[in-house]
């Protein structure tokens, strides 16, 4: 990560020296969200934000925490089942966008005869496998190489909380995301969270009180951008109320 | 006076901005990319919908005219081909107008146009809609018996009455003219001069990137619009990454 952030607006050309210098084996440059390549070798921005680079992966992208979630291949999302068609479920990733398809057979242990039954409005934790702009996004709940679910699948119990896209990204970064409030709460009470890149967090715990407290804690950390001390204080306050 | 802007303050819209300048205050909201109605769907492009709502009453042909101008200008800067078969909905609600708006001698739809363009752009930036470039816009008024006014306030225009002609220009970041609306009587030399002044106000000087230089270009206005826009974006990024420095 660069120490000084370069703030860009759409249409800015990224200078050659601002791009990552490859240190790993990978020599081709990977462009993430917010950047586009104009042949032969111009790289311009399409959104406003801070330029982020990773030298090891030879990747560059624009960090921004606003806007609607756009499905990207490989992202883990929490989708809501809307209806069931002949051989797939129609799922909503974000409101008011075309439904994503989740094949009936894309679950662990599913076969032609034993299909999973998911009622409308049930939640699934899935991975985006196809997010081309030419078709509607496609989801899966299994790892195609092993056939295991690896944590993906229907989410039972608990409830979901909305957070900003940046917060969802931070939660998925684990320790690098600096969300310590959950560790503090986790020392006293048990709960389980599932984070979707589309800005949804699913919390499940022993009782309703814990679930709500944990969800509120994540949302508060997000909205007030609490630092380490702030998060510790928040966790103490919440544990006292439980 | 540089315009004031607040970004991403409406939590239910994908992107939003409130902009106030010279007595005008406009709230902009952007939703997108969302599902488009079948009859508006374009197979290879995003559909753009612009709604302008007046400060009082319901929309009239004047608003429809402004919507058309905004639509045509914004379609040029939104990368519609990267989000095909979707809808980008831009809603602009005028919140307040200066008192002298109707009596200042310039067509009201012309004075409000740069403000609407700026609000729409800020809301698009806030919604992270892919754009090919940014735009900045300004009004140049040429009074009958004094020197041209750059981005004048309504009281300024009232004092300088009668106004012979008024011009609105919008430029992209690389200095390409995106929009020109002119009203009144003028000759080509006057228009050319107005266009040049507007470009100096809107675009950053080639080579010069210092804030101070931007100020000099437009002494009486205090600030170059390109520099101002970057400052707004800077604040947005600082706000979004404030957790990194929080205690």
From TrEMBL, chain A:
RNA-binding found in the keyword field: yes
Domain Exosome complex exonuclease Rrp40 N-terminal: 29-68
Pfam family, one: RRP40_S1
Annotated compartments: Nucleus
K Homology domain mapped to chain residues: 158-208
InterPro entries: Exosome_RNA_bind1/RRP40/RRP4, KH_dom_type_1, KH_dom_type_1_sf, NA-bd_OB-fold, Rrp40_N_euk
Superkingdom, natural source: Eukaryota
GO biological process: CUT catabolic process; exonucleolytic trimming to generate mature 3'-end of 5.8S rRNA from tricistronic rRNA transcript (SSU-rRNA, 5.8S rRNA, LSU-rRNA); nuclear polyadenylation-dependent rRNA catabolic process; poly(A)-dependent snoRNA 3'-end processing; TRAMP-dependent tRNA surveillance pathway; U4 snRNA 3'-end processing
A GO CC annotation given for this chain: nuclear exosome (RNase complex)
Secretion signal span: none
RNA-binding listed as a keyword: yes
Keywords (A to Z) from UniProt: Cytoplasm, Exosome, RNA-binding
GO molecular function annotation: RNA binding
Record protein name field: Ribosomal RNA-processing protein 40
Automatic annotation (TrEMBL), chain B:
Coiled-coil regions listed: none
GO process annotations (BP): nuclear mRNA surveillance; poly(A)-dependent snoRNA 3'-end processing; rRNA catabolic process; rRNA processing; U4 snRNA 3'-end processing
One matching Pfam family: RNase_PH
Keywords: Exosome, Nucleus, rRNA processing
Places the protein is found: Nucleus
One GO MF term: RNA binding
InterPro entries, alphabetized: ExoRNase_PH_dom1, ExoRNase_PH_dom2_sf, PNPase/RNase_PH_dom_sf, Ribosomal_Su5_D2-typ_SF, RNase_PH
Domain Exoribonuclease phosphorolytic: 6-130
Entry GO terms, CC: cytoplasmic exosome (RNase complex); nuclear exosome (RNase complex); nucleolus
Entry similarity comment: Belongs to the RNase PH family.
PANTHER family referenced in this protein's UniProt entry, alphabetically: EXOSOME COMPLEX COMPONENT, EXOSOME COMPLEX COMPONENT RRP46
Full protein name: Exoribonuclease phosphorolytic domain-containing protein
Species annotation: Massarina eburnea CBS 473.64
Upper taxonomic lineage: Eukaryota, Fungi, Dikarya, Ascomycota, Pezizomycotina
């Amino acid at each position: 990560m660069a120490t000084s952030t370069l703030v860009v607006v759409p249409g800015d050309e990224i200078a050659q020296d601002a791009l990552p210098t490859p240190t790993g084996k990978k020599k081709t440059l990977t462009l993430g969200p917010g950047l586009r390549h104009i042949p032969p070798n111009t790289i311009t921005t399409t959104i406003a934000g801070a330029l982020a680079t990773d030298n090891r992966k030879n990747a560059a992208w624009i960090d921004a925490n606003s806007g609607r979630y756009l499905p990207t291949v490989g992202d883990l999302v929490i989708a809501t089942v809307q209806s069931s068609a002949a051989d797939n479920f129609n799922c909503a990733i974000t409101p008011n966008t075309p439904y994503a398809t989740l094949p009936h057979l894309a679950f662990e242990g599913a076969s032609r005869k034993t299909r999973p039954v998911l009622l409308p409005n049930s939640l699934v934790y899935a991975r985006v496998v196809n997010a081309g702009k030419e078709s509607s996004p496609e989801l899966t709940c299994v790892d195609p190489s092993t056939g295991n679910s690896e944590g993906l699948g229907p989410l039972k119990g608990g409830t979901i909380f909305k957070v900003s896209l940046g917060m969802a990204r931070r939660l998925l970064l684990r320790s690098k995301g600096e969300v310590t409030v959950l560790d503090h709460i986790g020392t006293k009470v048990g709960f389980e969270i599932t984070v979707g890149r589309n800005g949804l967090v699913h919390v499940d715990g022993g009782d309703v009180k814990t679930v709500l407290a944990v969800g509120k804690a994540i949302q508060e950390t997000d909205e007030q951008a609490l630092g380490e001390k702030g998060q510790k204080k928040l966790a103490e306050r919440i544990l006292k109320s439980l | 006076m540089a315009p004031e802007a607040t970004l991403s303050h409406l939590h239910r819209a994908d992107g939003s901005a409130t902009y106030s300048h010279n007595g005008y205050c406009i709230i902009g909201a952007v939703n997108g990319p969302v599902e488009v109605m079948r009859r508006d769907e374009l197979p290879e492009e995003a559909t753009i919908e612009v709604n302008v709502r007046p400060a009082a009453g319901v929309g009239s042909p004047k608003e429809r005219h402004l919507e058309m101008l905004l639509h045509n200008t914004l379609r040029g800067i939104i990368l519609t081909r990267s989000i095909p078969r979707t809808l980008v909905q831009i809603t602009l609600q005028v919140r307040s107008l200066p008192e002298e708006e109707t009596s200042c001698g310039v067509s009201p739809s012309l004075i409000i146009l740069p403000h609407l363009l700026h609000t729409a752009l800020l809301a698009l930036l806030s919604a992270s809609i892919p754009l090919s470039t940014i735009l900045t816009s300004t009004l140049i008024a040429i009074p009958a018996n004094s020197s041209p006014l750059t981005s004048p306030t309504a009281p300024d225009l009232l004092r300088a009455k009668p106004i012979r002609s008024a011009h609105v220009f919008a430029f992209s970041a690389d200095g390409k003219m995106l929009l020109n609306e002119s009203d009144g009587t003028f000759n080509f030399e006057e228009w050319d001069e107005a266009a040049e002044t507007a470009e100096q106000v809107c675009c950053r000087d080639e080579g010069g990137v210092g804030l101070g230089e931007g100020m000099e270009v437009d002494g009486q206005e205090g600030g170059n619009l390109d520099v101002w826009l970057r400052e707004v974006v800077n604040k947005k990024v600082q706000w979004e990454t404030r957790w990194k420095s929080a205690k």
